[in-house]
Design brief:
mainly alpha, 6 helices
Length: 111
């Protein structure tokens, strides 16, 4: 799987969610973070290299938890076909975020 196709599908999902406030915000922030961490994301998607947090562990904020929940619900809602590109995109992105939870949380604090 090429990272470009995953990023393109994530961007398409971001555009499709316009007007759905909670979902739109979650997908937007995830898309921005993944784009910011594109090298790590590419290594994860294409080479199965697990990224490592740069930020030390800290309590997970409610905002971070809500974004993960919304993103998981979107994945569950969109497709249950594991070969569908939307499913693959959301699944890989959630897995990537789970490795970088603290970095993602730090990103959210800065915006």
């Amino acid at each position: 799987m090429k990272v470009e196709s995953i990023l393109a599908k994530l961007n398409e999902l971001r555009k499709d969610c316009k007007g759905e406030n909670e979902i739109e915000q979650a997908v937007y922030h995830v898309f921005c973070f993944v784009s910011y961490e594109i090298n790590s994301f590419a290594n994860f998607v294409e080479n199965n290299i697990q990224p490592k947090n740069k930020i030390n562990e800290s309590p997970i904020s409610q905002n971070t938890e809500e974004i993960f929940k919304v993103f998981q619900e979107l994945k569950d809602e969109i497709s249950d076909n594991e070969e569908d590109l939307e499913f693959i995109t959301l699944d890989l992105t959630l897995k990537f975020l789970s490795f970088l939870t603290y970095d993602f949380q730090e990103y959210l604090k800065k915006i």
